[in-house]
Amino acid sequence: MRAFAEEVFASETKDEGVRDEISMFDVQDDCPILQQEMAHHLHTDEDAEKRLHKCRTMTLPSSMSEQSRKVLRPVAEVELDTPTYLEVPDFQRVAIIGDYASGVTMDDFEVSCKGIYRALSIREKYMRQAFQRFPLTTSQYLRDIEGEPFKPEDSVQPVFTSPPKKGEDPFNTKCLPENVKWVARMKNGVIYVYKDATAADQHKPMEELAIPDYETFIDDMNFLIALIAQGPTKTYTHRRLKFLMSKFNVHEMLNEMEEMKELKMNPHRDFYNCRKVDTHIHAAACMNQKHLLRFIKKSYQVDADRVVQKVKGKDVTMKELFANLNLHPYDLTVDSLDVHAGRQTFQRFDKFNAKYNPVGASELRDLYMKTENHIDGEYFARIIKEVASDLEDARYQYAEPRLSIYGCNPNEWTKLSGWFNMHRVFSPQLKWMIQVPRIYDIFRGRNFVPHFGKMLENIFLPVFQATIEPHAHPELSIFLKHVTGFDSVDDESKHSGHMFSTKSPKPEEWDIVKNPSYTYYIYYMYANITMINQLRKQRGMNTFQFRPHCGEAGAVTHLLAAFMTADNISHGLNLKKSPVLQYLYFLAQIPIAMSPLSNNSLFLEYAKNPLLEFLKKGLIVSLSTDDPMQFHYTKVRQDWVHIRYCSAVCLEMLCIFSSKC
């Protein structure tokens, strides 16, 4: 199995073009006759009762013989057994009657469904360990396959901090749990919790906090690598995905006008006053470029003589800083600010990262978009609070900005939480994510960390300590209440050449100036988040989700690792390369935050983005902004769709269940 997985891994790392599927039967939707008929239909108040009566009183042709009528009688029984939600008279439904083989042989069908069942069981196991979500519909069918009763109360869910009530202080430390005398230490890249120092010296961790087994994880990963390369499974999943898209297209063709009519009859709610959440946005680029330009000019007018930097022991005012850059804020324009990503950044992640520097000056980035500088990140906090104020004015818009923890030194959490509390960067419209850049090679090359294990310790140990002794770390404990999850970010197209396996060195042994593989990062982040969540759940605190950037570029094995470990992902473009993974993401209902504008400037042209295709097939997708500063011109946020296809998942799981029976 390992040898086969290594062969597949090697083939996936090669750059191979993806053949776009072009249908010969695609027709433009701007037919004037169709538009006229739709307009007429939407403005005609049809009698629903009359239509319902007509549907119920349809009879068989009188010319049919009694024997023919008896043959057709089971069709009526099928309609009687349909669920209530399918009996809506205003919408036409299409029923597919027959087996679920989808054109493959029964042997291939059985092999495929057994593999899919095991893959879903693997994901469910790791989601339960980390207190992350797994759909109840899929879980119910898995229990049916195993012959066990399904109990909804046995499902696990992440724990979030409720928003403060009116008049309640979100920075109040009196509600924190009491300190305990437990000890947290790292071993083999994972932080364990012990009852006391003696137990830590003997490595006897608390039994109620279970870590994912390393060898089992590798075996599960190798099985999934083999599964996504398995011929029968690829054929079967490809056909099922085609079927799902066809069902959507048929439904759209039959019921588009009825849905439009129902939409117009819906009182009060429309796109602008339904709640929308931007689940993928980076705090350093959460403002648009005009907002940043206006803030720079305003800060210069008010604080021109303020000391904002110290260079070689000398104080530098803002006026002197701009003079050293040969700039005057009055002359700046959106174009000269040069933070907008264009075609010059396509396939160039290095140039894209350089766009975070206004006018190409890292000094301005440090001043306006960093939490740690000479003015303690005051300007950055004010910009974020202005963005939050815009969201509050819009009333129905929310966001989850990402702040960075690098793992370069253990004081990063203290400084970040101090910034959050000092400037009171709280808004009911905001929750926070922590992003961890995969740049160990840079830190090791500069001797900031001795090995990869130290980087992991700097990232996670302070969180354990604040969970065990919240009153000893009050600012960090308050900040963590408003954090919803962790993200792993960087350029996925960079290939490390290392395959994560049982032969991989432990993090304390990884002391070379070379970045570990994506899967290596993902496993150790997931393992530590799992331990944190189990500890925080036991202590009555909020838990964290693992939500990495995944599938934007690189090998499809990235998506495989996220399938095992992540609650949801950002981007997911490479799912179109693997029908098996795409189908598994559908059955497991893994949310995908997609950013077509971001992809258009980096990895994939807008017209080729698979978002609409994923939506039609029933995957959970949402629109996100990613970096408004780089991609947007206005304050309008291009968000946010979140659609579930529970009935479709139910039918697909019934398909797998029938094969197992």
TrEMBL record:
Record-level GO cellular component terms: cytosol
Keyword terms, alphabetized: Hydrolase, Metal-binding, Nucleotide metabolism, Zinc
Gene3D superfamilies cross-referenced by the UniProt entry: 4.10.800.20, Metal-dependent hydrolases
Cofactor(s) recorded in Swiss-Prot or TrEMBL: Zn(2+)
Catalytic activity: AMP + H2O + H(+) = IMP + NH4(+)
InterPro entries per record: A/AMP_deam_AS, AMPD, Metal_Hydrolase
Gene Ontology MF: a single term: metal ion binding
Enzyme category, top tier: hydrolase
GO biological process: AMP metabolic process; IMP salvage
EC number annotated for this UniProt entry: 3.5.4.6
Pathway where it operates: Purine metabolism; IMP biosynthesis via salvage pathway; IMP from AMP: step 1/1
Sequence similarity: Belongs to the metallo-dependent hydrolases superfamily. Adenosine and AMP deaminases family.
NCBIfam families found in the cross-reference section: AMP_deaminase
Name the UniProt record assigns to this protein: AMP deaminase
Organism (species): Esox lucius
Lineage: Eukaryota, Metazoa, Chordata, Craniata, Vertebrata
The encoding gene: AMPD1
